[in-house]
Amino acid sequence: MASVALGASSGTRAKRVSAAEAAALVRSGDWVEYGTGMGQPDVFDAALAERVDELTDVKIRACLTLRPRAVLEADPGREHFHWFNWHFTGYDRAKGDVGLANYIPCNLGEIPDYYRRFIDPPDVAVLKTCPKDEHGFYNFSLATLWARAIAERAKIVIVEESPGLPCLDGLENAVHESEVDFVIAGDDRPAPEIPNPPPTDADRAVALLIAAEVEDGSCLQIGIGAMPNAVCSLLRESGVRDLGVHTEMLTDGIVDLYRAGVVTGTRKTLYPGKVVCTFGAGTAVQYETADRNPDFLCHAVDLTNPPHIVMQNDRAVAINSTTQMDLQGQAASESAGHRHLSGTGGQSQFVRGAYASEGGKSFVCMSSTYERRGVRASRVVLDLTPGNVITTTRADMMYVVTEYGIVNLKGKSVSERAEAMISIAHPDFREDLERDARRHGLIPGGVF
Q1: Helices (H), 212-310
Q2: Which of 130, 184, 221, 346 has its Cβ near the most Cβ atoms within 10 Å?
């Protein structure tokens, strides 16, 4: 790895420089990697933003932004920096709404392979990590994901050390000082927290239905949001025992189950006794619980998300949410028409992996309605909103849950699926949905 302006590192020990010196390595036209979640740099970001008027066409790849980014705030006209993102948070979405962020379609578990096979070596990679340990490794904290693949491929690797990050064991979860060109001192701020929205009545009703389907010894994947977290709350009270965790995102709900003794992992086939994830985001309680805890492993995402890995644990249970579904069982979980909201993430991979697991179950859940500008609308629809992106296909869909019921679409015909989906729609919309389904031939005459 060769540097541009500061001289090459020794090959055995990274060179310590200031944030301004590190930011000076970026040239116009460069591809810069910003990492993911709590692994995105803060001090470097501020230093790079200071150079906004010196640079043009700097392309930055990132994911799951948990704090405002100085480079975007400094360039509201998108004249200097271009932001590309693997999965939107609320901040990324707001930037996307005004044309300052571009989404990169992906299955999250495949991204390390994208870097190793399809993406040209990035010019500069900046990864926020834990301070170097006694063996010379910089730990990726709860932001392992594809950080290792980035470090392997980038022409210049910069580490921003932060003592405020939790440190976890895992596979491909660190970079050695011999692989790093430059190190800068980060700030002392703790890891960014994200609040947990309070569950609604619909969230609780859905959670109650799903919790009743979870058996002792099941292995959980919990998606983001109030509804999946509400499931964790009810599982804690349900009396179920010896749950395992093999998930993409470590959530506060999972940590609550672990702290309550409900999650033990003793019946897992893959990494028994361990809570396995690839990244985490939540409150300080989560970070403090996972920090240097031998019961937690944070692996690279291609070691957590692929279906052939998920299925190795018996009774895998995937719990994810969506925003709209049609009568055939297609789930649009990441967009509202052409407006991008979040991302595919690991939903489709865990849906497939859980189904393939011995005794496994996949649940995709949603409230039956939503309200916009004072108008209530059904999330169960005849046709998806034009422009909506399908996250989980009808062929992959297993259990669908709303506050009005739970249905299993596996093995059902189109007409049976339509009837099943209508049965869990809000009662105020069922008559219109059935009439539309019959008019468009989803439920042929004489059926049901």
Answers
A1: 226-238, 252-259, 284-290, 307-310
A2: 221
DSSP-derived letter for residue 448 is -
Which amino acid type is present at position 5?
A
In which residue are the tokens 């799903």 written? 210
User: Is 216 within 8 Å of 240 (Cβ atoms)?
Assistant: yes
Give the per-residue pLDDT at 446: 65
Beta strands 399-402 and 331-332, pairing class: unpaired
- Contacts of 5-9 with CB under 8 Å at 24 or more apart are 6/182, 8/181, 9/180, 9/181, 9/182
Query: In 240-358, which ranges are continuous DSSP H helix?
Result: 252-259, 284-290, 307-310, 347-356
The strand pairing partners of 336, in sequence order, are: 339
Q: Supply the residues annotated as catalytic.
A: 248
Strand partners, 372: 375
The DSSP line for 316-349 is: EEEEEE-SEEETT--EE-SEETTEE-S--TTHHH
pLDDT, residue 6, reads 39
**Pairwise CA distance, residues 369 & 423, whole Å:** 14
Q: How far apart are CA 191 and CA 201, in angstroms?
A: 31
Q: Residue 52 corresponds to which tokens in the numbers above? A: 């906004």
pLDDT in tens, 104-157: 999 999 999 999 999 999 999 999 999 999 999 999 999 999 999 999 999 999
Which is it for strands 249-250 and 279-280: parallel, antiparallel or unpaired?
Answer: parallel
Distances (CA, A) of 198 to 225, 227, 306, 334, 363: 10, 9, 31, 21, 21
Within 166-298, where are the H helices? 201-211, 226-238, 252-259, 284-290
Token match 């975007």: residue? 72
Contact 21, 124 (CB under 8 A): no
- CA 305, CA 229: separation in Å to the nearest integer? 20
Q: Rounded to an integer, what distance in angstroms lies between the CA atom of residue 351 and that of residue 398?
A: 8
Centroid of chain to Cα 251:
11
- Per DSSP, the three-state class of 35 is strand
Annotate 390-443 with DSSP letters as a single string: PSB-TTT--EEEETTEEEE-TT--HHHHHHHHHHTS-HHHHHHHHHHHHHTTSS
How many CB atoms neighbour CB 161 within 10 A?
Answer: 18
Q: Give per-residue pLDDT as tens, 37-67.
A: 999 999 999 999 999 999 999 999 999 999 9
**Rounded CA gap, 347 and 355, in Å?**
12
Beta-strand relationship, 375-378 and 369-372: antiparallel
| Token couple for 49 | 């933003």
Q: Are 141 and 165 in contact (CB under 8 A)?
A: yes
User: pTM surpassing 0.90?
Assistant: yes
Q: What sign does the dihedral 344-406-310-38 (CA atoms) show?
A: positive
